[in-house]
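Dear support,

Our group has been running a series of protein-ligand predictions, and this particular one with copper (II) ion is the one our PI (initials K.S.) wants archived with full inputs and outputs. We had some confusion internally about which version of the output was final, so please treat the block below as the authoritative record. The input we submitted was:
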Amino acid sequence: MREFSFRPNLQFFSGAPSAIARQYEWLFWALVVVCGTVTLAIAVFVVYSAIRYRRRDPDELPPQIQGSIFLELTWTVIPLGIFMGMFVWGAFLFFDLQRAPRDAQDVYVVAKQWMWKVQYLDGRREINTLHVPVGTPINLVMTSQDVIHSFFVPAFRIKQDVLPNRYTNIWFQADQPGKFHLFCAEYCGTKHSGMIGWVYAMNRQDFQTWLAEGAPEGSLASTGEKYFHQFGCANCHHFDGHGPCPDLRGLYGREVQITDGPTVIADDSYIRESILKPKAKIVLGFADIMPTFEGQISDDQLVALLAYIKALGPAPGAEQPTSSGSTPESYGIQPGIGGVGATGNANTEPGVR
Ligand SMILES: [Cu+2]
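Confirmed final output from the archive:
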C-alpha cells in the first residue's frame, strides 16, 4: 500500500491516484508554463526596450510612430484565444468535479468540532477515516453539526466546504490502492489542526471484506426507516398517494411544485429543510400541517432518514428521477418497492439491505 502524504517536494507530476487529479496537474502545469512564458517575454522585452531605446541626449526628440492596427489586433486576439482556451479547459474540469457520475456511491460525512463522522449506506460508520473501493466513484454528501469545515484531500485534488444546515457534495474515484491524508481546510476552532484523518483506497475485494466486518445495526436506509416510524413520519406520509402529506416514493431528485412558488428539485438540502423547517416550502395541494423537527433530530439521524427516502423507489408506473448520484438500486432496494403494501405501517419491510 502506497502512502501519500502532503509534503512539499519538487515533483512535477506526483502520480496522483485519480484520473481527474492527474488532469488537474496537466492544467496546473499548462497555466504555469503559459503564464510563466508570457511574464518572461514581457519582462525581457521591457528590459531590452529600456536599453535599446534609452534617451542618449537630453534634447533628443524621438520620431513619432502612428499606431498599427495589425499589431494591436495580433497582441489582443492571440492572448485572448490562449487564455479563453485555459478558461474553457478549467471550466470543464471544474464541472466534471462538481457533477458526480450517475453510478457514484453515496457516502455521508458529518463534520463536527473536531472530527469527521463517516456513514456508509450499508450501515458501517467510522471516524476520521474513509475507506473506499478502487475504481468506484464515491459521492460524498456532507454537512456540519456546528461551524463551517472544509473536506480536503490533496492527493485527489478535492476540497469542498462543509456547511451547517445544508448538504454539499464532492466526488472522487481512486484508481490505485493507498493511504491518503485528509484535512479540514477551514479554520474551525481551537483544535482545527487536529481535524485530520486518512482516506484508505482498497481493492474491491478488501473493501467488501472490510465492509462486512461491521454494520451491526443494519443498513443506513433501514435505520432511517426505523426513525421514519419513530418520529411519526409514517402517520401522514402514506405510500398509497392518499395520505394527508405527500407520498415520498420517488421524491428524491424529482421536481416539486411549491405553493405560491417555483418548482424545486428535491435534493438532500430540500428534504432536510422540509424536515426541520416544514413551513419553508409547502408542496402544492397539501396543507401546512407538518410540525417542525428542529432540535429533535440529529444530523446523523437526518442522514439515515435521507438514505431511507432515497431508497424508496418511485411509485409504480412513475418516472425515474433524473438526478445524478446513487440510484435506488445502489441503496440495495428495487424501484417501486416502497409501495409494496406500504401504508406507513411499521410492520412492512421495504426490502432494504
Ligand atoms: Cu474543521
